[in-house]
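F.,

This is the one I mentioned.
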């Protein structure tokens, strides 16, 4: 009876109750991570998939992001105009290398900062210089383009377990999952080897990033 009562208390402490306050639960972040854990670096695409001057739309953790390579460096901002929410990637219009203009009403943003710098249909608008889209930190490493998705200041890419695992998979090296590694869709399966004596395990590296994302 005592054992059953103790088990019931453990279940109550770990199972969400209907209408309960999830903010007081230690595992709340796991319920909020249906699309992935925020405040981490995530691989977006291979470097070769974005040439100089090209734009590319991508959805990451449920957020629409527009990437463009300018003078060799990749920048990223929200893929939507602040005016009517129109996605730029549907019809990218770049009249200068550093800007993108909304094809709907001509709102023009600096791709490096997300700031509204001009409105083609209303050059004297007081909104110019006051409106700003969200910009995303971007880094390129080992022929992969990474974007930091979150609300905190980005930590170094090399220290992010999610990014490190993705780099290992892309370069053919294996990296076992540890307790500190977030459980995301990039997890590598560890199958039992049919050729190794004693039932040892080996990791299977994935050479194509697309298989994991």
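My design for it:
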């Amino acid at each position: 009876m005592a054992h059953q009562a103790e088990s019931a208390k453990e279940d109550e402490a770990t199972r969400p109750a209907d209408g309960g306050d999830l903010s007081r639960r230690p595992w709340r972040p796991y319920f909020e991570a249906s699309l992935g854990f925020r405040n981490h670096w995530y691989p977006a695409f291979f470097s070769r998939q974005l040439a100089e001057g090209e734009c590319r739309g991508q959805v990451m953790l449920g957020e629409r992001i527009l990437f463009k390579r300018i003078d060799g460096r990749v920048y990223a901002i929200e893929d939507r105009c602040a005016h009517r929410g129109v996605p730029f990637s549907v019809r990218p219009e770049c009249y200068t290398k550093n800007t993108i203009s909304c094809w709907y009403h001509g709102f023009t943003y600096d791709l490096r900062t997300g700031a509204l710098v001009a409105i083609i249909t209303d050059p004297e608008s007081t909104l110019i210089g006051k409106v700003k889209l969200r910009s995303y930190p971007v880094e390129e490493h080992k022929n992969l383009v990474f974007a930091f998705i979150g609300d905190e200041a980005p930590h170094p890419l090399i220290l992010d377990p999610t990014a490190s695992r993705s780099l290992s998979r892309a370069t053919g090296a294996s990296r076992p999952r540890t307790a500190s590694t977030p459980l995301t869709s990039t997890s590598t399966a560890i199958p039992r080897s049919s050729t190794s004596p004693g039932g040892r395990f080996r990791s299977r590296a994935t050479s194509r990033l697309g298989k994991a994302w």
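The helical segments are 2-14, 28-31, 161-170.

Talk soon.
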